[in-house]
Specification:
Length: about 500
C-alpha cells in the first residue's frame, strides 16, 4: 500500500493539472472534475494493491474519474440535464477484462462509453490559464494555481501563506465559484487572446517564486543595478538590440564601495505583502505539514520550466524561467552560517550554481532570436550579466544602466527607476544618483529600500548623519528579520561615525 501511495503522490504532483484540465473541459465544471478525480484516487488505493499499477496511471485515473462523474450526474436530480448533454458524446466501447478500462466495466453499473484520453500538455496549459484568469483577484489566482496546478492540498496552501486552513479553503472555494459563475472555460486561449492572457500567468508564477525566495521574500523580478553586468563573449545578448550604444568605462578600482544598506537596497527588491501573506490570527495558525517557503520557490521554478516546454515560441516565458533560474543560482550564498544576509558584493561566487546560470543563458539566447523583447527578458538579462561577472568590482555599470533604460520603457515603475539610480551612482557618481533617488520620494517614501538606497548614497557623499537618519527610517519600515539585522548593523556603524543621536 505504501508503494501505491508513493506512486499516486508522484502522479498527483506531476499530472494533476493535466488530469483536472481534461476533466474540467469535458465536464464544464471545475468542482465536479476535482471531486471525480478524488474518487478515482480512492478507487486506485483500493484496486491497485491487488490488481497492480496500470501502465498509464494518469490515463487510468482520468477514465475512472470520468465514470465517477457520470455516476454522480445520474444520481443528482439537478444534474440530469447536464448528463443528457454529456451522454451525447459517448460512443460504444468494446468490452474489457478485469483490471482494464473501468469506464467500460459492466460490473460498475455504468454505461460503457468513450471517456477522455490521458492528459496532454494542452490540458496542463489550459488549467494554468484558467487558474490565472484575469477576472480572478490576484491572491485567488496564486492560491488556485498552487492547488490545482502544483497539486498542493488546501492545508499546504494555508501553510504557505500563513493563513488558517479555513481561510485558504474558502479562498479556493470562492475562486472556483467565480470561474463557474463567469463561465471561464478550461481551455488554451485562442491566439488572438494570448498576448492579453499570458502576462497574468507569468505574474502568478513570479509571485509564487517571490513568496518562496528564501526568508527575505526578495523579488527576483526587480533586478538591481547592484547586480553586476560584465558581459563575457558567451553571455546572452540583451533582448532589445542596441549595437550602437557607446560602452561607458567600467568603474575605477578606487571608486567608493557602496554601503551595506545601499547594496541590499539594490539587490532584487521585495514587494508589499499581499492579502495572502497576512499573518494568521494568534492561536489559529496552520500546521507545519505544508511546504516551507523554499518549496514554494521550487514549485514556481518548476512551473516556469514546464510552461517553457508548453509554449516554446513565447520569449517572455523563457525570460521568466531564466530570471528564476538566475535568482535560484545564488541561494547557497545569500546567508551566512549565522543566518545573516550576505550582500551581493560579499557573496562567495564559488557557491553559485553554474548549471542554473548556464541554463538561464541558453534560454535567453533562444528568446533573443524571436526579436520580441519584454520586461522578463530584460530583467533576466540584467541578472545574467551579474551572474557572469567574474567579480563584483569588475561590474560594467554602464551596460546595467542601459538595460535599465530599456526596462523602464516597458515597465516604468519607481522600483525600476530606483535600480537605475544605483547604476547611475557608479557611472556618474553618487551625487547624480541622489538627484534621481530624491525625485522618487513622492512614490517611494513608504518603501524601506528607497530609504536604504538614500542612506548608502549619503554615506558615500560623506554625510553620515543624514545617512543614519535614512537608515533609521528604512529600519522602521523593514519587517524581515534578516533585513532588520542588516540595517541594525549598518546603523550601529553610522552611529559610531557620528556619535550618539
Amino acid at each position: 500500500m505504501d508503494g501505491v501511495r508513493e506512486i499516486l503522490d508522484g502522479v498527483w504532483r506531476n499530472d494533476s493539472a493535466g488530469m483536472l484540465g481534461v476533466l474540467a473541459r469535458r465536464l464544464d465544471d471545475f468542482d465536479r472534475a476535482e471531486e471525480a478525480l478524488q474518487d478515482a484516487i480512492a478507487e486506485a488505493l483500493r484496486r491497485w494493491p491487488a490488481e497492480g499499477v496500470p501502465g498509464n496511471p494518469p490515463g487510468w485515473l482520468v477514465r475512472t474519474a470520468w465514470r465517477k462523474a457520470l455516476d454522480r450526474l445520474r444520481r443528482e436530480a439537478n444534474g440530469r440535464a447536464k448528463h443528457a448533454a454529456l451522454a451525447a458524446e459517448l460512443a460504444t466501447a468494446p468490452a474489457t477484462g478485469p483490471g482494464s478500462d473501468p469506464a467500460a466495466d459492466p460490473a460498475s453499473g455504468t454505461f460503457p462509453g468513450s471517456p477522455p484520453g490521458p492528459p496532454t500538455g494542452d490540458d496542463r496549459l489550459a488549467m494554468i490559464f484558467a487558474c490565472c484568469h484575469p477576472s480572478l483577484p490576484e491572491s485567488s489566482r496564486v492560491a488556485l494555481t498552487l492547488h490545482a496546478v502544483a497539486g498542493l492540498p488546501a492545508e499546504s496552501v494555508a501553510a504557505a501563506f500563513l493563513l488558517p486552513r479555513a481561510t485558504a479553503a474558502q479562498r479556493l472555494v470562492r475562486a472556483k465559484r467565480h470561474l463557474r459563475h463567469h463561465r471561464v472555460r478550461v481551455e488554451v486561449p485562442p491566439p488572438g487572446e494570448l498576448p492579453a492572457r499570458l502576462p497574468s500567468v507569468l505574474r502568478v508564477i513570479y509571485l509564487l517564486y517571490n513568496d518562496g525566495y528564501l526568508t527575505t521574500r526578495a523579488s527576483p523580478a526587480e533586478p538591481s543595478a547592484a547586480e553586476p553586468s560584465a558581459p563575457k563573449p558567451t553571455a546572452p545578448k540583451p533582448s532589445a538590440p542596441k549595437p550602437s550604444a557607446p560602452k561607458p568605462s567600467a568603474p575605477k578600482p578606487s571608486a567608493p564601495k557602496p554601503s551595506a544598506a545601499e547594496s541590499r537596497a539594490a539587490e532584487p527588491t521585495a514587494r508589499k505583502p499581499s492579502a495572502a501573506e497576512s499573518p494568521a490570527p494568534a492561536g489559529d495558525m496552520p500546521g507545519r505539514n505544508g511546504p516551507d517557503r523554499r518549496e514554494l520557490a521550487r514549485e514556481a521554478l518548476g512551473l516556469a520550466r514546464r510552461l517553457t516546454s508548453l509554449m516554446p515560441a513565447e520569449p517572455e516565458v523563457a525570460g521568466l524561467a531564466a530570471l528564476l533560474e538566475l535568482s535560484e543560482s545564488r541561494t547557497a550564498s545569500r546567508f551566512d552560517r549565522a543566518g545573516r544576509l550576505v550582500l551581493l558584493e560579499d557573496q562567495d561566487r564559488s557557491l553559485w550554481d553554474t548549471n542554473l546560470i548556464a541554463s538561464a543563458c541558453r534560454r535567453l539566447a533562444r528568446a533573443a532570436t524571436h526579436d520580441r523583447p519584454g520586461p522578463y527578458q530584460l530583467e533576466a538579462t540584467i541578472a545574467a550579466q551579474h551572474a557572469l561577472a567574474p567579480a563584483y568590482e569588475r561590474t560594467d555599470w554602464g551596460t546595467v544602466r542601459r538595460l535599465y533604460d530599456l526596462l523602464a520603457t516597458t515597465r516604468p515603475t519607481p522600483v525600476v527607476l530606483l535600480g537605475r539610480a544605483v547604476a547611475t551612482s557608479f557611472v556618474h557618481g553618487p551625487a547624480a544618483a541622489l538627484v534621481e533617488v530624491d525625485a522618487l520620494a513622492g512614490r517611494l517614501d513608504g518603501y524601506r529600500l528607497w530609504h536604504a538606497t538614500r542612506a548608502g548614497l549619503l554615506h558615500r557623499l560623506n554625510r553620515p548623519a543624514e545617512a543614519a537618519t535614512a537608515t533609521r527610517r528604512a529600519l522602521a519600515l523593514a519587517t524581515d528579520p534578516a533585513e532588520r539585522d542588516l540595517l541594525t548593523r549598518r546603523l550601529e556603524s553610522l552611529t559610531r561615525e557620528t556619535g550618539p543621536r
